[in-house]
Design brief:
heterodimer; A: mainly alpha; Helix Hairpins; 3 helices; elongated; B: mainly alpha; globular
Amino acid sequence: MSLTEAYLSLSAIMFGIGTLGVLLRKNTIVIFMCIELMLNAVNLSFVTLSREYGQVDGQVYVFFVMAVAAAEASVGLAIIMTVFRNFYSIETEDVHDLQG
Amino acid sequence: MSEFTVFAAMPFILLLSVGFGMLCWDLFFKCDRLVWLLAAVFGAWGFAIPQYFVAETTMNDLVYLDGYSLFFYTLILFGTAATFVLNHRYLAKQNVRTSSDIDMLILLAACGGMVMVSAANLIVLFIGFELLSVSVYVLCGSARKERASSEGALKYFLFGAFSSAFLLYGMAMVYGACGTLSIPEIAESVTSATPMLLLGIGLLVFGFGFKVSLVPFHVWSPDVYQGAPVSITGFMAVVVKVAAFGSFLRVMSVCFGSIQADWAALLWTISIITMTVGNIVALRQTSIKRMLAYSSIAHAGYALIGFISMGDAGGVEATLFYMLSYSLMTVASFGAVIVVTSGSEAQYENDSIDSLHGLGWSHPFISLVLTVSLFSLAGIPPLAGFVGKFYLFKSAVTAGYTGLAIIAALNSVVSLYYYLRVVVVLYFKGERTLDWAPEKSIGAGPTIALATATVGTLAFGLFAEYCYPFIVVAVNGFS
């Protein structure tokens, strides 16, 4: 297994762990951390592929992704705050008024 | 080329500068913001009009200037203008923040949508996607004191961030397979379907599927549509969906059109599941917002037909026309719902279909708008919804997917039931007995917005053959 393949596999495993975390965990903050893990797994793929192709493009994309993830984190935590104010909980099983 | 670059950026610059200006507006001014917001929206559209006559990429090949972008700009900006007009009147009556930051977020979301549909590089597309999404997460939760609103925002945020991770992973796989993320260069390098490329396409479909709420990625959308303030729901149903479809269609047709045979089966399956599940679940909804949410899921399924029949059969053009008719009738239907529910103090409790009863006689204009838009959504001739479906089904038959066209036609028959049920409630359930009712006079702005959407629904149905050539020209520019 070449180094590129090894890193791509690592990234896929991290992405899978993140996905499983989103699907299985109940605490919204932990779910959100798993989403961040998925984004970072993608970043690892970009950097690996960038090195494989000998381009700088992939590494530049990572900066965009990191900036976007930071913006998303600030908005997400604010939303979790408003949910806590209304529901006094951030567990997904407590936040389910809407259904039908 | 170089002098055109600044010009090409003007729509974005205008929206962003007015948007950020709105942040400080409340500090300095007390006068009405609406005129300035509409000026920004129409100004942005005006600056984009010359794009109809060119077809090229600009800004270091990051942005397309073509009729295709202009077409989607038009729909996005029309939806944004209608949202401003309706929001303006509606927010004042509800338990929702009315300060100018809401306007800023709407402008930023519109700008993000425009970046998405004109992006010539997948990472630019991703930036636009996130600008749109993050703004709409906040808009969704803008009724901070309402439990439903914050719950909707949380669900939208979690599912949205989850799906954008998949979208991004898809882009990474495409980058791995093609060595570039520039859409024209991907189009050149894609000749055969390698496993990595197919994985990338699958993940991209996953990511976009969440945004346009295709089944099985739709679970968030009814809750979010119901939980968000209703004018924001209208914005999501029109602008977010149209922008996501515009970029999805561009990516699939330009980048991966040459290996369409390898992914057509996937979208064929998703299309059928989406329209069937959307229509069948819509049958048993009692909340009008949830009913319209499932109806918009079903419509995403119809619009997907054009992806399967693209090429000589004219699927791309048919999808564009369908997006046009979809946004007109959705603005009209959600606009009517916004006006109706704003008569009630407790908008979040009073969104059931039964609460519309008797309005047909006491509020003829709103009821007429709602009736026409629902007939159009159901696909009754001669309205735009019918013509849109006709073009889509025709392209499917031409491309050899007769079964798909038949299933879609059967689905439209099923959908008649739940659309007509609303019309029956409006006109044939006797006098109104509820103690609240919408206002008699809804003001000039909402009247104009609703009338434009309704007349447009009728006009694009009757005169479709005159506007279809413009869409064909718009599409010819790209690819």
